[in-house]
Amino acid sequence: MLRFILFAALAVAAWLLVKKLLAAAQSDDEAQPKQADVQTMKRCAQCGVYLPEAEALEKDGRHFCCADHRDQFHA
Question: What is the pLDDT of residues 57-67, one digit of tens each?
Fold first, then answer.
């Protein structure tokens, strides 16, 4: 009977240790931002709003949030 209790205690301890190690490894992965998630932000030359570079429209080296602001801009 004592051997069964000892075996059960060791099994529970091993299960808790594995669970804790898996949780720590998963939280480390979530803590580091992925490079693909980081984007350069550009400011609209007309209204000043910031938007991702991939969404910005460019004309003469300036960035704009929409086609109307691009067309209306006067330097």
Answer: 999 999 999 99
CB 69 within 8 Å of CB 51: no
Single pTM value for the model:
0.51
Q: Is 49 helix (H, G, I), strand (E, B) or coil?
A: coil
d(CA 15, CA 19): 6
Instruction: Supply 69's token pair.
Output: 């602001």
Q: Tell me the C-alpha distance between 49 and 16, whole Å.
A: 50
**Token pair for residue 21?**
């190690």
The two structure tokens encoding residue 71: 């067309």
- DSSP at 37: G
